[in-house]
Each structure stands twice: as C-alpha cells, then as structure tokens.
Design goal:
The structure holds two protein chains of two kinds.
Chain A: H1 3-35, H2 45-51, H3 54-60, H4 66-75, H5 83-96, H6 103-121, H7 124-127, H8 129-150, H9 155-181, H10 193-205, H11 209-216, H12 221-230, H13 238-253, H14 263-276, H15 280-285, H16 288-311, H17 317-325
Helix pairs in contact in A: 1-4, 1-5, 1-8, 1-9, 1-10, 2-9, 5-6, 6-8, 9-10, 9-13, 9-16, 13-14, 14-16, 16-17
Chain B: E1 16-18, E2 21-22, H1 27-34, H2 40-55, E3 58-59, E4 70-71, E5 74-81, H3 83-107, H4 112-115, H5 121-125, E6 147-154, E7 160-166, H6 173-186, H7 188-193, H8 202-212, E8 221-225, H9 233-243, E9 246-249, E10 253-256, E11 259-264, E12 267-270, E13 273-276, H10 299-304, E14 309-311, H11 328-336, E15 348-349, H12 353-361, E16 366-370, E17 380-381, H13 387-399, E18 404-408, E19 414-419, E20 422-431, E21 433-436, E22 440-442, E23 447-451, E24 465-472
Parallel strand pairs in B: 5-24, 8-9, 8-13, 13-14
Antiparallel strand pairs in B: 1-2, 3-4, 6-7, 6-21, 10-11, 11-12, 15-18, 16-17, 16-18, 19-20, 20-23, 21-22, 23-24
Helix pairs in contact in B: 2-6, 3-11
The chains are: A mainly alpha, B alpha+beta.
Amino acid sequence: MLSRVASGIYWMNRYIERAENDARFIEVNLNLTLDLPEETVEQWEPLIMTSGDQDLFRAQFRDATPENVIFFLAADAKNPNSILSCLYAARENARSVQEVISSEMWEQVNRFCLTVKDGVSSGLVKQNPHRFFTEVKQASHLFVGITDATMSHGEGWHFSRLGRLLERADKTSRILDVKYFFVLPSVRDVGTSLDDIQWAALLKSASALEMYRKRYGRIAPQQVAEFLILAPEFPRAIQYCLTKAADSLHGISGSETGGYQNVAEKRLGQLHAELAYAGIEEIMSGGLHEFLDRFQTKLNHVGEAIAETFFTLRPVKTTLLQQEEQ
Amino acid sequence: MGFTSYDPEGFFDEMFESVGRPRPSALRLMQKIQSLPEGELRKRQQAAEGALLAKGVTFSVYGDQAGIERIFPFDTVPRLVEVSDWDRIERGLRQRIMALNAFVDDIYHDQKILKDGVLPKELVYSSKGFLPPCMGLTPPKRIWCHVSGIDLVRDRDGTIYVLEDNLRCPSGVAYVLGNRRLMKSTFPELFDAFRVRPVDDYPSRLLETLHYLSNVPTPSAVILTPGIYNSAYFEHSFLAQQMGVELVEGSDLVVVDGSVQMRTTRGFQRVDVIYRRINDECLDPQAFSPDSVLGVPGLMEVYRQGRVALANAPGTGIADDKVIYAYVPKIIKFYLGEEPILPNVPTYICDDPQDRDYVLSNLDKLVVKVASESGGYGMMIGPYATQREREECAERIKADPRNYLAQPTLSLSRVPCIVGDHFEGRHVDLRPYILYGKDIYITPGGLTRVALTKGSLVVNSSQGGGSKDTWVLSKGAIPGGGSPDQSC
C-alpha cells in the first residue's frame, strides 16, 4: 500500500473519530444540564481545559459560555479540531484514497460532511444541539459499520482501525479528565449525589453508563475510572482500544504480537503493557489527572512512531510534523 | 411533459426533424419518455441529481470551505447517435488518430513532412506543444497518443465536423461511465427496451492499452495525478478504482536504481507503466520545468532508456496545437494517402497575412481561438461579443498572430433538454474517446456536452456546460415506430 494512501486512511479515521468525540464531549454537559438540580451552575470551562485547544479558544473568546464552547467545538472553521473542520479534513483524506476504500465508505464520509455542513449553516447546532450531536455520533457509527462490512480486512482496514482506536483512546482519557476540572460547590459535596451525577454524565457521554452498571452497579469514582481505563471488553475503554490497535499494528507488519519489529510496535507495546500491569489503586494514588496527562503524551509518541515507520519512507523531521498536523 | 410543441427553431436537432416530428431512430425513445406519468421525469431528474451529490461528483472551490458544491449538471434525456452517423464517425476517428500518431512520430524523428514542405517548419518549432527534449525518442510500440478525445460538432446543414483534437490529457470519460450508470439506475426500463452499445468496458480496455506498453509479464501500472485539487481528480480516482491500479502523486514516485518506484508501507515497489494525468512540462523537473513540484525528478531519463512507459507519450501536444489542426487534412493525406473521412471546420490562421486580414475584417462573424489554450479559455465568439471585446481581440491577434486562429461561427446542433416543466433545445458537441494500443478502440458514443444556457454555444464544463448520456444503438436494433403516425 502506498505510504500516502496508508496515511490518508489513518487520518480519515482519526478525524471521524475526533468529530464523534467532540460530540461526546459536549454531551457531557448537555447531559448534566438535564440531570442537575436547577440551582447549580453549568460549567463549560472544563471542556475547553481538557480539549487540549485552550490557547486557541482564548485567542477567540473571552468566556466559556455554552454558546461559545459549542460553537468552538462543533462549528468553528478556525478550530482545526472542531467537528466541521474534522469532517472537511476527513473528506479531503477520503478523496485522496477514494480508489482504495469502498464507494460506500466514500459516500458515507461525503454524506457525513454534508450533514455537518448543513447542520452548521442551518443553525441546527444552536437550535437543537441534542439532535445535531446525535446525528454526528450516528453518522460516525455508520461509517465504522460500513468500513467493517464493505472493506477487506487487510492492510487498509488495519490502518483504519489503528487510526480510529488511537484517537478514541486519547479522547476517552480526556472525557475522564473533564471530572478533574469540574468544580463541586464545596468539599462536602464530594461523594454526594451531585458528585455521582457528574460521574454518570461522563459515563453516559462515553456510551458507557449501561455497561458500567452491569459490571459495578453503583457509581463510585474509582470504579468509573477503572472501567473507562482498564475494561478489556468495553470498546471505548482505553485498554480495549490499545489491545485492538496493537493487533492491527501487528496485522500490518505481519509480526507476532508480544514482540516488535519497528519503533511503532515497540512504543505501543510498551504503553499497552504498562496499562495492563497498572492496577487502578496505583493509578488513583499517583493522581488520576497526572496519569491521564502522561498517558496522552505517550500516546502522541506512538502516533509519531507510526508516521515515521509507515508514512515517511525516508524519515525527515519536518515531514513528520506535517503528518501529525494534517 | 411532452414534445408536442417542441420546436427545433431552424437548428439541426439530433432528435427531431421538425416541430413534433422525431427522427425515425428517436421516435420510440421520445414515445417512452412521453409515456411517463406527469411529473415523473422531473422526479427522476431530481433523484439523479441527488445521487450525484451523495457520490460527491461535484465541482467546488476547495479552498473556500463555505463554497457551494455544484454537481456537474446532468440532463436525463439521452442523446442518440444514429448508427449510420456513428459508422462514419468511427472510421473517421480511426483514420485521424493513426495519421496524428504518425505525424508526432515523424516530427520527433525524420520530419519528412517538413522536408516535403507540406507543413511550414516555423509552425512546428514555434508551437508550445513541440518539446525539443523528445527529439529522437521512440516510445514503446511507436505509439504516442494512447488516450485521445476528439471533439465533434454538427452544423445546421447536418455535416459533422472535427472541432478539436485533444491528444495530451483529455478528461471527461468518467462522466461517460458515470452518466451511463446513473441512467441505468434512473431509467432501467429504457435499457430493457433499447439495445444500447455498452461503454462500461472502457476501464478494462484502458488497462489493456497500458499493459500493452510494457514487456514485463505482469506490469505494474499506475495513474499519476496532480492531486485532489485538480478539477479532474474525481476521474483519476474513479479510473484507478475501476482498473484496480494505484493512484499516485508525484511525491509517491521516486527514481531508484534506474527505475521508477513508488513508496509503500513495505518499501519501494517498481512501476512499469504510468498513465499520467499531469502535463508534459510538469512530468520531470530535471527535463522540463525546474520549479514543478508535481513531477518525478529523473523520470524522463528512465523513460528514454525504456524502463518505464508513459501514456500519453510526452510531446503529443504538437499534434493538437490549434494551428496545426488546420493542417490535419493534409497530414492524413501525407501519411495515409487517404482523403479525410471527417472534415475539419474551415480555419483561418492568423499567422498567414491573407487569412489575418480576412479575420480582422470579419471578427463579428468568426470564433477566434487561442492556439495554445483549451477548455474554451480565451475564446471570442464574434457574433455574441461586444464591439469592445472584438477590438481587444484584434489587438491581441496583431500582437501575437501565431497564437490565434479563427473559424466561422457554426450553428451547433441541438437536443431537447429539460428546462423547468418543458423541453427546450440546447446546443451540444460530442467527444468520443479513442484508445490506441494493440488495436484502436473508440467508446461507442462518448461525452455529449450541453451548453445549458439558452442560446449559448460554449459547452465546456468550466463555462456552465452540462452533459447527457450518449447512446449508440446496436446494429439491427433500430427501433421501429410503434405507431404509423410519426408525431408524438
């Protein structure tokens, strides 16, 4: 497979997954607005804090009002990670690999892009955000389903899954991190129903509440973190994402899992093992936020190693950077 | 929606002889269309447009994210080409492409045609399409023009002329295939009723043509595209998908150890045939334009050594220079000893003082074209231009006569198109595609481009043109009239 094509497929999937997770981020708060007692104040600042794009936000907006945050994450063409920008980027990448993916996949990316474009220009994002973000999630799920059902599960498909799951692992870690920035009215509220409602909102936005309940029943912070980080079978849990991403990485090179043949396999293998042997008590005692922060940095290094191994045949520093920002 | 009041208005209409009288070959098609329930045709037209949008077959300015995406307009009433017309067209195109190929080969070798004085030397040397680095080059199997598109038009009296040869990177064939697919899904019942000659095998014929150029048992062929911002990118991608070959950009290719290789996730892989959709001068910055970023440094040297084949061969632009065009009848005679089957449109060459005087004093009657341009750019249509536009055109001709030519304004033939809730005649041309490999293959039909603006003669997609599915019926399948009365 052409290196450029592999990179196009990988990024197309990352961008679509990123758009879906933007929707999930915003849903954390949309869920809270529905569930919280009336007198509590909505907190939109944490979404910006965890997005990783706080500087970009500050350059444009003064206050983290609901309108500003939703616009920034969903409809802002100046934010390269907004849903709108992600879909343009996904479609551009899809266009560049159109002859390699199935035409059903291409049509879905194209339709997805048009849906988002229409949602933004028609004002649906503002008037009915619930509906808009549900549509975004569904369009993304549809794309994943179409990919699974219409594309040979060969090299291209592995690059699809690799991109999607690395992006998802990163975003699940950020959704979990939102709680760190949520302010409770007072220390006394820790462990109260208000606290529970916030944790439940996180689970809900990761589509994890029901699966969590089946596993643990009651909401408890440590167990929520355990579920979203370490659950081996929940498809949005970090551990699950890394396991399948590693499978795909080995599917691409044809090497056995458990060892490594290139720097990408090595770094992902290390990160995966670290997680596999880390108990939740250990993670919590060192600080959840700190753990998630370190994890995101290491995951970025995995992404860089993938670009270096597969996308740039003669690794050049500048090209590597370009690929990351594509 | 009916054709009862459809009026050819004195133009040659491809489907109608006169008001309410379809041509014999079109009768049954017209009846079929007319028998659709009220509103059905428009509904299907809209469905077809929706499908194009979903498939992303759109024009848009990619730099402008808010830009409106427009589909390449498609009119669902097919255009029929009569079997007898098509026979002559096919023979004429075959003859023309063989002569043009022989001409290009001669120009870059012995130049017999110049030595015999059939064609002025200066005309060739001053052409932008003439590439001195190609002198002495012999492409595989001595074929230069592997993929060509030749534009045909019909005048008021019914004569079919060759309007233009496109021998470099003619585009549009994806629309031929796309329009046919769209028609099949929009009007399946029409295909049951008529035996339309298929065009769907074009991609496999193209792949055969490309493979023929290599001596390797299983050659690796690729399409080289300038990238997603090129207006024909959809076609490059579509053809690559249909042929199952890699679509590469210049940066995917590199010359290693004397051969062209592509960068893959498993290292370098050799490429044997390149169907390139980038211009000659962009192919190789070392051989042609040093500032081109689209091409592959060192490509021409590998090509010269016969270690990679290019389709089309570089240098074919000399044969589709719009001034050289005027000499094609002589070129056919010179190389094949035959009279041209398809005539040229009479052409005045501004470089010739006598012709130039005629052109300058008849600008209001003529179409003036720029020799080195395509896509309808730089064209001045005298009868429709303002006095000022004509004066400016005259200045440009005087400043650079070699670059201009003029032709009488033809009354292009028309076909019925859906306009609102009725049919109106619109001017069309026809671009059949010709593959020259082991044999010569011509797409039955080709791309019918329609000037959708009322009265307009410009069919180019860049200037508001649309397209239609084009039907050549199988021989012996001429549909007889269902009713003795030929009106409909």
